[in-house]
Amino acid sequence: MRLPRTILVLIVTALWSSALYPQAPSPKASEYFPRKNGVIWNYSQIVLDTLQHPIDSTLSIRKDQMIGFTVIGMDGIEWTTQWIKTISGGVQDTVKWSTYQNTVKRYFEIGKLFPSLTIDSLGLGRFNGTYTVMNFSSGVNSVDTLIRFDTTVTIDSMTFPVRFSFTSKKLAERSMKVSAVTYTVTPYVYKFAVTALYQTFIGAIKIPVAELYDSTFVAKDTWIVRRVIPSTVIPTSASTLALLGVAIPEVKIPGTMDELQSIVLEVREEPNIVRQFRLEQNYPNPFNPSTTISYFVPERQTVTMRVFDILGRTVAESLNSLQESGYHTIQFRGDALPSGVYFYRLQCGTVSETRKMLLQK
Q: N or C: which terminal CB in the chain sees fewer CB atoms within 10 Å?
């Protein structure tokens, strides 16, 4: 059977075009992280007023430091986990990032995103986990939903169903000059939205309550070079709750702008930084049948890890050995266990920490 001449021409043209103009492969996410313990990023940090103008008197320095990373080969594909500690205004926090193929993931403790609300009252703790925050294989201007979950809030004895969502939009690469250095950056615009799900006889009506934005610019072998969170004013008249008869005062959320001032490579960790024992949340969670547990040991000592069921019975002892200072990971397998909630406890010297994980078969 012979193909029509027109179809043959189209096939040949397509093959010829792909050979002359091959699509560039998506960059690996790990290309954006300088992987070396002790790397320090020094940022200037300034508060923005309601017109998005910097307030000079608020200028401060924020320091990010990589305090450990782990590389895991999965079927020939590299999965890297980085722990970055932020020091700003005397406050310290450690964030867990992971890079896998073309994506960057971050572990979120959802309650920290909403400091004015409590995890217990909203049940936000069950949404803690690792979420994709950058996808370098996404098309330009494509929107990815990073987090979305529904819950309820109670104000003045009235309960409202609401939806929290967090999306990202990848923009086209561009040149950007930051602190006298020109970078080729990939911008991501994030939108955090709170939407009221107002129930009517025809179904739920989605009414916007608040939207917050975040523009982050990353460069290869550098990481974040600029981050801008615009100031936001949520007027009472625009509040969904006000429309429903609930008095809510105007909310003003100041913005911030962080800019990279310098990045220091091959430095030793500062002696005045206290390195503490730390147990990370397992990933993935829920899992089936295996999951990775990471932890940090501040000094050489015996470390034990036991897994318990919800009745407090020991179902596994995954670790009992003398370990050196630094970050470590182990794989836990639940092949022999039924589905359910389990707790893993890490004992390091005289201190211990326990976290919860969910096995779903």
A: N
Residues in the chain: 361
278-359 maps to CATH 3.20.110.20: no
| Record: fold of 29-264 | YmcC-like fold (2.40.360)
Q: What is the DSSP string of 222-270?
A: TEEEEEEE--EEE-GGG-HHHHTT-----EEE-EEEEEEEEEE-S-PPP
List Cβ neighbours of 75 (8 Å cut-off, separation of 6 or more).
Answer: none
- Distance between CA atoms of residues 135 and 138, nearest Å: 6
Distance in angstroms (rounded) separating the CA atoms of residues 61 and 53 = 18
Contact 162, 209 (CB under 8 A): yes
Query: How many Cβ atoms are within 10 Å of 282's Cβ, its own excluded?
Result: 24
**Domain limits of the chain?**
29-264, 278-359
User: How far apart are alpha carbons 74 and 83 in whole angstroms?
Assistant: 20
- How far from chain centre, in Å, is Cα 233? 25
Tens of pLDDT, residue by residue over 321-347, are 888 877 777 888 999 999 999 999 888
Q: Cα dihedral angle (104, 141, 64, 256), rounded to 10 degrees?
A: -150
Q: Are strands 103-108 and 129-135 parallel, antiparallel or unpaired?
A: antiparallel
Q: CA–CA separation, 77 vs 298, rounded Å?
A: 30
Tell me which amino acid residue 117 is: L
Instruction: State pLDDT tens for residues 127-184.
Output: 677 888 898 888 899 899 888 888 777 766 777 788 888 899 999 999 999 988 899 9
Q: Which of 339, 315, 317 is nearest to 330 (CA)?
A: 317
Distance in angstroms (rounded) separating the CA atoms of residues 238 and 228: 24
CA distances from 322 to 150, 235, 300, 347, 351 (A): 45, 58, 7, 12, 15
For residues 359 and 122, give the distance between their C-alpha atoms in angstroms, rounded to a whole number. Answer: 24
HSE-CB for 123 with a 13 A CA cutoff:
9
**How many Cβ atoms are within 10 Å of 43's Cβ, its own excluded?**
23
Compute CA distances 190 → 44, 193, 222, 296, whole Å: 21, 10, 20, 31
Give the model's confidence band at 80: pLDDT under 50 very low, under 70 low, under 90 confident, else very high.
confident
